[in-house]
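Design job #97: recover the sequence.
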């Protein structure tokens, strides 16, 4: 358990947070610019002190204003990566990687540098690296210091599209491989969908919502606050087989229903999360034939909610074998079909809308539903 109960005033701005975070997996801090994400991260890191409060990781108190305890940043054993990589300019890449290690461990360096794809950069100096390469080295350095907690403040911001996607894929694989909690700050929904397990929604220094990513994204009253998140659901599915001739991959959901999508680069038997955007899901009352739509899931309606800022559009919440699915349809269609909670319907999903899910990482055993 990671306990945070802190207040900090900076000029006009007050951060007031009381949170219990899971001590495993990736917790994303999401919120508009100026909502206090970096302020909170700096308090956790020990770069700033709270005016009031306590921070403890697995019972180890990092800071407590009531007892005047404050563990300085270099003794907190945290891996920190900020938006700008901040490498030591006079050390080689290898020197930077080994900087925080107690005892140099060539096997650990080789493992992390392999994972991050920086083997070929080890003898280079920081000023010869691209932005994305420097960012990867910074992440590697943070990991090699054997941190108790990894703090990432917008680690991908400022990278161009292809570099960003590549590093996001490394990160998504990495955070599932390492067994320490990660706090990941971002204002980019695609990044969060790829890596986050839990989501904390910050606004004006306050926590608006906190919970499992899928649960927070399912709360219609937060829709306008989650601006930029394409309303979507993440479904856990297992790769069943690849149909080479038709260039499709077949996935099986936990309740046995199947989905098809353009071929994925994943082994049969592996679990993965796929993003299903609400606007790519249509609803029919009965199974349909004679359409190009390849995927039909039987689902039960749990709620129908017109959007706050666009009443002509209704968000339909669906349960498909214990997994939440969402459909965005016109309010007129919702009324014409007489949709209401409790009804069983067919959710239609276009196969191409499932193509290239954001960094679709394989799921680790403990995440398999
Ligand atoms: P975010 O990372 O979510 O974009 P920040 O945590 O950086 O937001 O900033 C939160 C608020 O605190 C902003 O209103 C910002 O202007 C203010 N702020 C940040 N640093 C300072 C500071 N050193 N002094 C006064 N105000 C600050
Ligand atoms: Mg910030």
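Job complete. Output follows.
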């Amino acid at each position: 358990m990671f306990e945070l109960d802190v207040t900090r005033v900076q000029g006009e701005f007050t951060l007031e947070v009381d949170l219990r975070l899971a001590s495993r997996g990736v917790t994303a801090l999401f919120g508009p610019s100026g909502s206090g994400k970096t302020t909170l991260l700096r308090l956790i890191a020990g770069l700033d002190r709270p005016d009031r409060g306590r921070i403890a990781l697995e019972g180890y108190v990092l800071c407590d204003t009531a007892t005047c305890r404050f563990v300085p940043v270099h003794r907190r054993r945290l891996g920190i990566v900020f938006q700008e990589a901040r490498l030591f300019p006079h050390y080689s890449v290898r020197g930077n990687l080994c900087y925080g290690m107690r005892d140099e461990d060539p096997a650990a360096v080789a493992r992390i540098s392999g994972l991050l794809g920086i083997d070929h950069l080890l003898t280079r100096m920081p000023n010869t690296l691209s932005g994305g390469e420097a960012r990867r080295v910074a992440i590697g350095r943070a990991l090699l210091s054997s941190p108790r907690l990894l703090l990432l403040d917008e680690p991908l911001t400022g990278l161009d599209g292809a570099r960003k996607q590549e590093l996001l894929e490394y990160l998504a694989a990495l955070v599932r491989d390492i067994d320490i909690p990660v706090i990941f700050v971002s204002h980019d929904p695609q990044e969060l969908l790829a890596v986050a397990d839990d989501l904390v929604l910050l606004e004006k220094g306050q926590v608006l919502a906190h919970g499992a990513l899928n649960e927070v994204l399912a709360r219609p009253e937060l829709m306008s606050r989650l601006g930029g998140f394409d309303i979507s659901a993440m479904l856990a599915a297992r790769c069943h087989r690849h149909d080479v001739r038709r260039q499709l991959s077949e996935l099986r959901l936990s309740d046995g229903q199947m989905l098809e999508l353009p071929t994925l680069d994943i082994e049969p038997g592996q679990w993965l999360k796929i993003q299903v955007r609400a606007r790519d899901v249509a609803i029919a009352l009965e199974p349909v034939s004679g359409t190009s739509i390849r995927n039909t899931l039987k689902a039960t309606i749990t709620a129908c909610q017109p959007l706050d800022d666009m009443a002509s559009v209704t968000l339909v919440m669906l349960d498909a074998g214990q997994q939440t699915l969402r459909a965005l349809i016109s309010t007129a269609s919702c009324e014409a079909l007489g949709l209401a909670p409790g009804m069983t319907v067919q959710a239609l999903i276009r196969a191409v809308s499932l193509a290239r899910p954001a960094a679709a990482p394989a799921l680790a055993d403990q995440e398999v539903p």
